[in-house]
Amino acid sequence: MKILSLSHSDINGGAARASFRIFEALHKSGVEIEMLVKYKESAHEKVLLADDFTKQGLAGQIDLFKTKVENRWYKWKIGNYNHRKDTFISNLSSVSLSEAFAKLDFDILHLHWISHQFLDLEELKYIKKPIVWTLHDCWAFTGICHYFDDCDNYRGACGSCNLLNSARDRDLSREIWEKKSRIYRQCNIHVVTPSKWLGESASRSSLLGRFPITVIPYPINTGKFKSVDKVLAKERLGLSRDRNYILYGAMNALDDVRKGFHFVRRVFELLPMGKHSNIELLILGSNVKELSNINGYRIRYLGSINQDTQLMDILSAADVVIAPSISENLSLMIMEAMACETPVVGFNIGGNPDLIDHKRNGYLAAPFSVEDLSHGMMWCLNENHNDRLSAEARKKVFNNFNEKRISAEYLKLYESL
């Protein structure tokens, strides 16, 4: 059985890293698998660049010209929504991957995050082999959004899109929803979601609800991701061994509203000034030093990290990780922190309950209560003096998300198709 995995990138971004971990777990287990990507940053020999399979000569030039025209047309359409929310909206158009599909030998096509001009969904109609699609957000079953927030149009038909600030039923979100609907009707897809929440959402959707859906979490290399001695980790990072560190981390940590830095700010504003003078906030994922402190509590910026060894030092040095996302599939940051024996406080939303067991290995705060988030942060800090939460956090990840277990679940799915 040969698997071809498709992902926009191999390791650049949360969804890419999650896809690569699934790919690596399957490869280690002996599955014949290759990964085709638009952007390659790893050195893995089984990760292939899509550009190496593009059409050549006149056919390639025509394909490229067609894609550029379609992209400009799409940007023009988006530009007509002058009051749309400032957020990322994917395009459906891309250079054709038909050459890759013709040249590569595979029995099952495994899709991951394929938005943003990587795979034209129209090409799925011509794949006469089983398709497994691991969702990393909601884009596959909505018109244009990657997270639907408080909108439930995806259950019927998109339109009057909140993201576009549109009052028209037949807007761009409806146009793309109809295109996806037409394509999916001609496809043989088995949907996989990493979290129960995403699986339930997909099953309620009008686009993917008719397909079989299986929940398979992300894997993590528990032999690689593990705690480092806290004192040693702090020394390597230049941190004081006598201070308590709260870690907040995300890509575009300060700018991505969905990741919830505004909640972190309000949490520290609630803390009595000076009462917890040994607490310091660490911010991972931003080089913009916007604030030096919040309410007198010092902020230390760690920038962006590309090395897992450095990430393990940071996660091990932290006493608590605060993860206040307003919508979340299955957070790699939470999983990695727990693997490194650091308790996490986050809102009781999305895939967070799949990871955090309330007051057993972390704290699930009521959405979107700043007071409860603040209480949970201090509860974890005070409750973990005997390392009980740390041990339970590691145990949860080790038992439920190890590579061997997750690869076996995928192999079972492949064999059933």
Automatic annotation (TrEMBL):
One of its GO terms (molecular function) is D-inositol-3-phosphate glycosyltransferase activity. Keywords: Glycosyltransferase, Transferase. InterPro entries: Glyco_trans_1, Glyco_trans_4-like_N. Residues 251-395 form the Glycosyl transferase family domain. Gene3D superfamilies: Glycogen Phosphorylase B. It comes from the Bacteria. Coiled coil: none annotated. Its EC number is 2.4.1.250. Residues 13-222 form the Glycosyltransferase subfamily 4-like N-terminal domain. This is D-inositol-3-phosphate glycosyltransferase. It comes from Dyadobacter helix. The lineage of its organism: Bacteria, Pseudomonadati, Bacteroidota, Cytophagia, Cytophagales. The gene is mshA_7.
